[in-house]
Amino acid sequence: MNVGMVCYASVGGSGVVATELAHALAGRGHQVHLISSDPPFRWRNGVAGLTFNPVEVPPSPLFR
């Protein structure tokens, strides 16, 4: 299965949950693309089936 996951890269919160779920799914043989502005806190390189896709987040007063 191909899976795309979007998260806010930070210590804790969605970054940790998304990264751990992505690693678990990739470990089961799925192709997972993690989409975020920066690599999440628990990101590990070299995991088969797991790809990090960086995106640019436009500035917003909500994220100050």
Largest sheet, in brief, is: 3 strands, parallel
Question: How large, in whole angstroms, is the Cα Rg?
Answer: 12 Å
Q: Bin the helical content.
A: 10-25%
Largest beta sheet: strand ordering: 1-2-3
- Could you report the average pLDDT, rounded to the nearest whole number? 87
Strand/helix succession: EHEE
> What does the overall shape look like?
elongated
Assembly annotation: single chain
Q: Please provide the count of β strands.
A: 3
End-to-end gap:
36 Å
Summarize the structure in short.
The protein has one helix at residues 14-27, and strands at 2-6, 31-36, 50-54.
Write structural notes for this entry.
The chain has about 60 residues and is α/β, with parallel strands linked by helices. Helices cover about 20% and strands about 25% of the residues. It contains one helix and three strands. The protein has a three-stranded parallel β-sheet, covered by helices on one side.
Layout of secondary structure:
Elements: E1 2-6, H1 14-27, E2 31-36, E3 50-54
Parallel strand pairs: 1-2, 2-3
Features of the shown structure:
single chain; 64 residues; alpha/beta; 22% helix; elongated
